[in-house]
Amino acid sequence: MDPEGPRPRPGVRALCQGGRIDGERRARQSPRLQVGQVCRCVASACRLHPSSSACVLPLTSLLTLFSPASLAGDWAQGFHSWSSYFVGSAQSFNNVKPIEGQSPAIALSLLGLTGITAYCGLHFVGQVKKEHTVVISAAAGATGSVAVQLAKNVVGCKRVIGIAGGKEKCDFVKSLGADACLDYKSASFKADLAKATEGGVDVYFDNVGGEILNELLAKMNRFSRIIACGAISSASPPASRLGLKPPG
After folding, report:
1. Last residue of a domain, one of 50, 78, 104
2. Which of 20, 56, 159, 202 registers the highest number of CB atoms within 10 A of its CB?
């Protein structure tokens, strides 16, 4: 988008094609979003430019943001809508301090919502220690992959076990430092999980909920901790799969 080109008026959002939820996609979205509502998204770290209002185009990895001249040259990010334009106050964005040698987009990943979630979950909720055995579900995902690296490569946990879907993802998780990664799609998953956690689990970073959470509940040590980060397996499940069940 040309910084010198036409700018949307404050309070006006021009939706892009596909920016609204259609019927086919509805089941895969948060139940709080209804047909016709605007999808939420995180606007990437973007350089601010002079204007009478702040507006952002959150559809590319690096975005152009117009703001009051006093903020020109700064970098910022915000949580707004998936639309062609977003118009709002500069206060709706957070300042981002660039790191030399790193892309500003790191503010969306390692130093953004997913990385901070992994760090805070492990340290403030899980209180991970070197002697702990840690299990991380959705370990190939944005948050899980950071959690694996923090647990093994930063904290130095005794054993870090990832859970992911498919050999390719499991190989990726092991390349991050995990001692093992279990394929939940495998017919032998429950047996593999039982073998991998024979000594019990001290911290479980749960990104999926559902049946995998049920299996882990029976393998947690006394005074262990479960980090309830996500429940993606229950986003649109059959009614019979909702809720906790006895393991086995």
Report:
1. 104
2. 56
The whole-model pTM stands at 0.72
User: Which helix H or strand E contains 192, and what residues bound it?
Assistant: helix 189-196
How many structural domains is the chain composed of? Answer: 2
Higher-confidence residue: 54 or 150?
A: 150
First to last CA, the chain: 55
Distances, alpha carbon 218 to alpha carbons 29, 86, 120, 137, 190, in Å:
31, 47, 25, 16, 12
Digit-coded pLDDT (tens) for 141-179: 999 999 999 999 999 999 999 999 999 999 999 999 999
Round to whole Å and give the CA distance between 214 and 218: 7
